[in-house]
From TrEMBL:
Enzyme Commission number(s) from the entry: 4.2.1.68
Entry protein name: Mitochondrial enolase superfamily member 1
UniProt KW Iron-sulfur keyword: no
Region forming the signal peptide: none
MF terms in GO: L-fuconate dehydratase activity; magnesium ion binding
Cross-referenced SUPFAM superfamilies: Enolase C-terminal domain-like, Enolase N-terminal domain-like
Any one GO BP annotation for this protein: carbohydrate catabolic process
Species this protein is from: Cyprinus carpio carpio
Catalytic activity: L-fuconate = 2-dehydro-3-deoxy-L-fuconate + H2O
Pfam family, one: MR_MLE_C
Amino acid sequence: MQENKIIKLTVRDVRFPTSLEQHGSDAMHTDPDYSVAYVVLETDSDAALKGYGLTFTVGRGTEIGWTRKRSNSAGDSSHSECCLGFMGAGGGQEEQMLKEGYPAYTTSCAWLGYTDQQLTQLCSEALAQGWTKFKVKVGADLQDDIRRCSLIRKLIGPNNTLMIDANQRWDVNEAITWVTKLAEFHPLWIEEPTCPDDVLGHASISKALAPLGIGVATGEQCHNRVMFKQFLQAAALQFVQIDSCRVGSVNENLAIILMAAKFNVPVCPHAGGVGLCELVQHLILFDYISVSASLNNRMCEYVDHLHEHFKSPTIIRNAHYIPPKDPGYSCEMLEESVQKHQYPDGEVWRAIEQQGKQ
């Protein structure tokens, strides 16, 4: 096998103005611009072999990731093109995924900044498309949360699944009190109820909410497998939310998946953003086919934003992730999109700056 050397590393700050329409808004991020530090590794291969990778941000702070990646190429190579495959795959699970796909839930209907009219329209459209699992952003105002959860529960009916997500907004006691008052809407879980580093705080919340039948979901902000180990040992979460970019990429996420299986806790990954759905689909397929062989209480987040900017966009059919057919980790972006949205000099951002001056 011919060995190829990396001869060039390029990092670009790519941002999308999602804040203009309140896409992605939650209790902690009222006006996020979904963004990535986008990496391309070039080699001396005769076939012009390249590796692609990204790390998602909400705009502010992308330059920090950009600087770190420029100074640490090893961090980039862990995200470059690879294909997990179906290692040790059982034929039945693989066939099921190819035929039916992996169950997804939608966060696109209920961002915190959306109006009631938007909530109603988007939930109605999602139901018509076959969605049965919905997540609602909460945490800024209790009475507003009660009103919005009531509206969405009535729209989706008593038999569909509802989750709520506070994006770290509360302290421990506040989280218990707040979620108890939302228990009438029968959420499956409360996501990120408090500081994502507070293992024992999450354990207290989990214990308090267990009699209400509400689990705790967290993990998208956990920065390594040791954090997940402690959460699992402390029974501090009932749903493991890995993120395809947060920890040391594929290898470390596989370790977390294996630990979750040991503790019999379902993996329900965080996704959305820019490219996270494209990346994490490979991890959920590995989890089901090679580790858990179970879909009980398992689902993967889906946000219907920005997939058109990728060479191999995620395919959703009947509210399920359909396994990708293209090789690689699905994170190559379209060069035209990168150029238009590069910050701050891309065409899109120049136009926004010009409008602000008028």
